[in-house]
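Support request from a user on the community tier.

User writes: "When I paste my structure tokens into the form, the page sometimes reloads and wipes my input. The last time it worked, I copied everything first. Here is what I submitted, just in case something in the input itself triggers the reload:"
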């Protein structure tokens, strides 16, 4: 049975598609770039990211009962990680693309203790590795900005 939790966790079905995590991250990057977040300011982006992280944690916990621990169908975590990646970064095409590449790298490879966060209980474990991957990606983007590499 499809529930609201499953719809949100799978980002309206993206999680059922092969490569759903990458698709969810790419769509998040596109939405971030193409919507008023471009001109709304950093506060709006922060509010969006916080809402996605907490909503994602809740729905990931709820769907775990039916889908198991950290199911590939749950892609709201990629959305959250991508939001964190783009926080406080100018919404310009090359920054968004670089953020997507960095986030997917950290999310897939899981270096620097990212994998350990998956052991947190319930939805926290599902979301934490992506949030930390987003933080690492954001820090690298901040260095790119600092050194004016783009």
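"...and here is what came back when it finally went through:"
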């Amino acid at each position: 049975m499809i529930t609201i939790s499953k719809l949100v966790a799978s980002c309206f079905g993206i999680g059922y598609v092969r490569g759903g995590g990458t698709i969810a991250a790419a769509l998040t990057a596109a939405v971030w770039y193409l919507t008023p977040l471009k001109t709304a300011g950093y506060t709006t982006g922060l509010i969006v990211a916080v809402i996605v992280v907490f909503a994602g944690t809740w729905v990931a916990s709820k769907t775990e009962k039916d889908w198991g621990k950290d199911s590939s169908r749950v892609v709201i975590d990629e959305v959250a990680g991508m939001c964190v990646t783009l926080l406080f970064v100018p919404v310009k095409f090359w920054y968004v693309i670089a953020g997507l590449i960095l986030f997917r790298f950290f999310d897939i490879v899981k270096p620097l203790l990212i994998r350990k966060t998956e052991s947190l209980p319930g939805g926290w474990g599902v979301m934490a590795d992506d949030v930390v991957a987003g933080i690492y990606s954001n820090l690298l983007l901040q260095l790119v900005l600092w050194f004016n590499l783009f």
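Agent notes: The reload is a front-end session timeout and is unrelated to the input. The radius of gyration is 15 Å. The chain has seven helices and no strands. Escalated to web team.
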